UniProtKB/TrEMBL annotation:
InterPro entries: ArsR-like_HTH, AsnC-type_HTH_dom, Dimeric_a/b-barrel, Tscrpt_reg_AsnC-like, Tscrpt_reg_AsnC/Lrp_C, WH-like_DNA-bd_sf, WH_DNA-bd_sf. PANTHER family: LEUCINE-RESPONSIVE REGULATORY PROTEIN, TRANSCRIPTIONAL REGULATOR AZLB. This is Lrp/AsnC family transcriptional regulator of ectoine degradation. One of its GO terms (molecular function) is sequence-specific DNA binding. Keywords: DNA-binding, Transcription, Transcription regulation. PROSITE patterns: HTH_ASNC_2. SUPFAM superfamilies: Dimeric alpha+beta barrel (SSF54909), Winged helix' DNA-binding domain (SSF46785). Residues 3-64 form the HTH asnC-type domain. GO terms for cellular component: cytosol. GO terms for biological process: regulation of DNA-templated transcription; response to amino acid.
Length: 158
């Protein structure tokens, strides 16, 4: 599907404000309401827009302690990576995980109720057959920058 400047602007705006009214969205992209809304429906039908959601602040709802962990696995073959990644998916306290190149295999972000709860969790991981060789824990003392909601037209142009 080829996206033009109107589509890109719609995506940029909706990624920041999914609750914008049809008329405000149309005004923001300089189209009338009907053609603007047809474009939104086309983007939804194409699967580019998957849905709309509220961004919640979990720290207000349930206080959590963020912890970043570098993890290196003992073995470096597909089965060990798959086993580790399955554990990550099955652990609700893991809120982010990326595979990285370099001295470690993964960076994992845990959000646990406390440091003690995190330690019990990582101890269980170490006792499991997931194959962690070494890990380094970093307790977050302050969040300096958090990912902003939404995407920009510049992001879409890449």
């Amino acid at each position: 599907m080829k996206l033009d400047r109107y589509d890109l602007k719609i995506l940029e705006i909706l990624s920041r404000d999914g609750r914008i009214t049809k008329s405000k969205l149309a005004e923001a992209i300089n189209l009338s309401v009907s053609p603007c809304w047809e474009r939104v429906r086309r983007l939804e039908k194409a699967g580019i827009i998957e849905g709309y959601a509220a961004r919640l602040n979990p720290r207000v709802l349930v206080p959590r302690t963020p912890v970043w962990v570098q993890i290196e696995l003992k073995a470096h073959h597909a089965e060990s990576f798959a086993r580790f990644e399955a554990l990550v998916h099955d652990t609700p306290e893991v809120t982010e995980c990326v595979a990285v190149g370099g001295g470690v295999d993964y960076l994992v972000k845990f959000e646990a109720p406390s440091i003690d709860a995190y330690q019990r969790l990582i101890d269980a991981w170490l006792m499991s057959d997931v194959g962690i060789e070494r890990y380094f824990t970093y307790i977050v003392t302050k969040t300096v920058k958090r990912p902003a909601a939404g995407i920009s037209a510049a992001d879409l142009a890449l």
